[in-house]
Automatic annotation (TrEMBL):
Subcellular localization, as worded in the UniProt entry: Cell membrane
Alphabetically ordered keywords of this record: Cell membrane, Membrane, Olfaction, Receptor, Sensory transduction, Transducer, Transmembrane, Transmembrane helix
Keyword match Nuclease: no
Ranges that cross the membrane: 80-101, 107-127
Protein name: Odorant receptor 22c-like
Length: 207
């Protein structure tokens, strides 16, 4: 019970941190929109020093977000690894139990209890995957935002700075597990598919 409570608290804190990172990415998009005002750039109604300061502010803020996500990955790595490993084991175990049940009145309560338990674990997995996917999508949006802005209307010096921002934004920021796996919908679907496959294999071996 204590471990479950610690796990829930840890997951809640990590999700708060990820939501904070997503909010920081949204702020970065606003900074870009202020820097690349197409109407001002088209009519040359801009202050070069002001745009330069805004772009440097973006770079500084982007670096802060990246460092924050690195720290967050370090903090959440162990908990997410444990969650995934235990989640896989529980899904396999519950799936095997459900495959073994005979749907009669004697086993009906156990069947629905196991089904509820399995659904709860899958719901937690979906929430974690959604949060990780959301972070990755916000990171990708920054790159999409930079390439769609009229950076080519800027003076050559600022164009080079804009290209530097694009190159840095190409690298996705994501929530990782053991520095190998990226928390996303894809990871959840692959993990679920693997767990169900193992459950089917174990069930067939027991027959």
């Amino acid at each position: 019970m204590l471990l479950a409570a610690i796990g829930v608290i840890n997951m809640g804190l990590s999700q708060l941190a990820i939501n904070h990172a997503c909010a920081m990415f949204r702020i970065l998009r606003i900074i870009l929109e202020n820097a690349f005002d197409e109407e001002r750039l088209s009519f040359r109604k801009y202050n070069e020093e002001e745009i330069t300061a805004t772009l440097y502010r973006f770079i500084h803020s982007h670096n802060r977000v990246i460092e924050f996500i690195k720290s967050m990955n370090t903090m959440c790595d162990l908990s997410y690894t444990i969650n995934i490993v235990f989640g896989m084991v529980i899904v396999i175990t519950d799936s095997i139990m459900m495959l073994q049940f005979n749907l009669d009145m004697a086993n009906l309560y156990k069947f629905f209890t196991t089904l509820f338990h399995l659904s709860s674990i899958l719901s937690i997995g979906i929430i974690q995957s959604h949060v990780g996917q959301n972070l990755m999508d916000h990171s990708t949006d920054i790159f999409q935002e930079t390439i769609t802005k009229p950076w080519y209307l800027l003076p050559p010096r600022l164009q080079k700075l804009s290209l530097l921002i694009m190159m840095r934004s190409m690298k996705k920021c994501s929530l990782t597990v053991s520095k190998l796996l990226t928390v996303s919908y894809e990871l959840f679907s692959k993990g679920l598919q693997t767990a169900v496959s193992y459950a089917m294999i174990f069930h067939s071996l027991e027959k």
